[in-house]
Amino acid sequence: MPDASVNERKTSDWVPASASTVAQMIRQHEELSAWLRGQSAELVKSYPDKWVGTGAGKILVFGDKLEDVVEQIESNGGNEGGVVVRFLSSRPKVMIL
After folding, report:
1. C-alpha pair distances (Å), 91 with each of 45, 47, 87
2. DSSP per-residue codes, 10-72
3. CA 1 from chain center: how many Å?
4. Edge-to-edge, what's the strand order for the sheet holding 84-88?
5. In terms of Cα–Cα distance, which of 27, 62, 23, 29 is closest to 43?
6. What residues form DSSP beta bridges with 83?
7. Which of 8, 39, 55, 78 has the fewest CB atoms within 10 Å of its CB?
8. Under a CB-based contact definition with an 8 Å cutoff, are residues 38 and 51 in contact?
9. Residue among 73, 49, 50 at smallest CA distance from 60
10. Is the dihedral of CA 82, 87, 92, 97 positive or negative?
């Protein structure tokens, strides 16, 4: 069932991954998140109030909707191993704790 989206899959079809595979996926997600976070200040200037996403190869894609960004990443084969998507808000919320 490789072409089915996550929403179309049944949990009974899922095959558990090994601990080392899960650890590798978490590491990749952390690396992609840190890389994207490091570019956020510059990206929000060029792409305010847009969605940005990246996957394997660290290629950035942009869109007005989350679905558009995920679709672009998947169509470019960038979802191998994980995807990181963020909203580039021109007016981020500030929380004082």
Report:
1. 11, 13, 11
2. -GGG--PPPHHHHHHHHHHHHHHHHHHHHHHHHHHHHSTTEEEEE-GGG--EEESSHHHHHHH
3. 22
4. 61-63, 50-54, 84-88
5. 62
6. none
7. 8
8. no
9. 73
10. negative
pTM score, whole prediction: 0.72
- Cα 36–chain centre separation: 10
Nearest-angstrom CA–CA distance, 56 and 78: 5
Question: Model confidence over 10-66: pLDDT tens digits?
Answer: 666 777 888 888 888 889 889 999 999 999 999 999 999 999 998 877 889 999 999
